[in-house]
Amino acid sequence: MGKEVKQLDKLSHSSVETMTQDRPLLPEESAAELEGVFKMLGNRTRLRMIYALTRAGEMCVTELAAALEMKPQAVSNQLQRLTDRGILASKRTGINIYYRVVDTCVISLLDRGIHLKEV
User: Fold this and answer.
1) pTM of this prediction?
2) How much is the average pLDDT of 2-21?
């Protein structure tokens, strides 16, 4: 890892520490909501979907099902959960519904998670 990358890692880590230290203790209700977000993201199928959508920009159910080698109904089910949570948005074009990631925090979390796995 280059010197510049290490410095960026230190900077981003220290800014996260400062941001967390400046906040009050997490209330029970907020912790429960955050738990729901992490449970939503703690599913390998949904993570793969988010990753595929992030890479492609947007995909319809049949494209995503083919990419993940899953049945369209199973994909559709998970996409609905992610849309309900506000992680994805959809638009209809003809007979297809296209999905895209709209929560940039989720993209950042996924990127950091992949980075942690690679280190």
Assistant:
1) 0.76
2) 51
